[in-house]
């Protein structure tokens, strides 16, 4: 069966409450030659999800329904509004819709091995006491920016998800320096949606990223229980760090500062040249975040 004719029923309706998005409605009356499939009725009018309103171009068709009022008559109603993502970014097909970014900040506890000396942020020193011993177990609260990227994919990107989880940014990303971003994980859920008469099955995928100003490289004091005796000579050996007790060398009960060659870093100026140096160690792989996650729409 088919549609013989169709015409719009006036009046059109429009509603806009202050502080809320406007809505509108358009109706069509159709004459049929008998019972007709609803999708055929909708196709005959030619209004689909995402079609602009005939008067208000910023309103898009978000809903359509058919009511058969008789064997040879039907009524099609179309409701318009503004999509959550905005009219300019809206796509009827879920696989064509742009990723949605969201941001949040919080404080996170991190191990503290360094401190800011003085009133500025430039002079950073190891966290030690006046005798040069490392202060263990200290923590600090650091600001963390979290980003959630939600998008639709035809298949779940399992290989990419494994490759990026735990990884750091290998290049500058979103205004941050190298190694200041980390991917916390990627999740996905399969879902099905019907768009303009077609069923589309896809994956809703979400990636979680976190940024810290101090970055995700480990900053560790160069200290140890053992040291290299005779470092730089042909007879070097690893031995236990020692301290003096009544003029005798005894095994140290605390870790001691080391030089780059592994020898004991002893200097009575414990807060200056004798203080432990800070070594940097990256324990996570690095990948190009722009390649995997893109950039936000701003």
Which features does this protein show?
7% helix; 4-stranded antiparallel beta sheet; rod-shaped; 298 residues; mainly beta
Question: Care to describe what's here?
Answer:
- With 298 residues, the protein is mainly β.
- The chain has two domains: 3-90, no CATH class; 95-218 and 284-293, no CATH class.
- It has a four-stranded antiparallel β-sheet with strand order 1-2-4-3. Strands 5-8-11-10 form a four-stranded antiparallel β-sheet, covered by helices on one side. Strands 6-7 form a two-stranded antiparallel ribbon.
- A hairpin with a 2-residue loop joins strand 3 (60-70) and strand 4 (73-81).
- The radius of gyration is 33 Å and the shape is rod-shaped.
- It contains three helices and 20 strands.
- The longest helix has 8 residues, at 38-45.
Produce a short descriptive summary.
With 298 residues, the chain is mainly beta. It contains three helices and 20 strands.
The CA-CA distance between the termini, in Å, is: 49 Å
| Residue runs with pLDDT of under 50 for 5 or more positions | none
What spatial order of strands do you see in the largest sheet? 1-2-4-3
Strand content: over 45%
In total, how many beta strands?
20
In one word, what is the shape?
Answer: rod-shaped
Q: How much helix, percentage-wise, in residues?
A: under 10%
**What is the domain total for the residues?**
2
Structural class: mainly beta
Order of helices and strands: EEHEEEEEEHEEEEEEEEEEEEH
Mean of residue pLDDT?
A: 89
Whole-angstrom Rg: 33 Å
Largest beta-sheet details: 4 strands, antiparallel
Number of helices: 3
């Amino acid at each position: 069966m088919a549609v013989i004719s169709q015409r719009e029923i006036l009046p059109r309706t429009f509603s806009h409450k202050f502080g809320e998005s406007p809505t509108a409605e358009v109706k069509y009356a159709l004459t049929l030659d008998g019972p007709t499939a609803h999708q055929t009725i909708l196709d005959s009018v030619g209004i689909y999800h995402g079609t602009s309103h005939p008067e208000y171009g910023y309103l898009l068709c978000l809903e359509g329904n058919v009511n058969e009022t008789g064997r040879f008559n039907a009524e099609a109603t179309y409701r318009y509004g503004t999509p959550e993502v905005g009219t300019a970014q809206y796509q009827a097909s879920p696989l064509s819709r742009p990723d949605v970014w969201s941001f949040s900040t919080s404080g996170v506890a991190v191990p503290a091995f360094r401190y800011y000396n003085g009133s500025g942020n430039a002079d950073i020193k190891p966290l030690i006491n006046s005798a040069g011993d490392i202060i263990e177990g200290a923590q600090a609260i650091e600001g963390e920016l979290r980003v959630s990227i939600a998008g639709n994919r035809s298949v779940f990107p399992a290989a990419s998800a494994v490759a990026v989880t735990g990884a750091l940014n290998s290049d500058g990303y979103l205004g941050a320096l190298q190694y200041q971003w980390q991917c916390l994980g990627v999740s996905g859920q399969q879902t099905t949606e019907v768009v303009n008469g077609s069923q589309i099955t896809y994956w809703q995928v979400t990636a979680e990223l976190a940024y810290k100003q101090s970055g995700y490289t480990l900053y560790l004091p160069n200290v140890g229980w053992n040291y290299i005796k005779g470092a730089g000579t042909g007879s070097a050996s690893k031995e236990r760090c020692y301290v003096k007790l009544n003029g005798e060398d005894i095994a140290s009960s605390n870790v001691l500062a080391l030089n780059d060659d592994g020898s004991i870093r002893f200097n009575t100026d414990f807060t200056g040249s004798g203080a432990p140096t800070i070594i940097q160690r990256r324990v996570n792989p690095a990948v190009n975040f722009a390649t995997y996650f893109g950039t936000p729409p701003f």
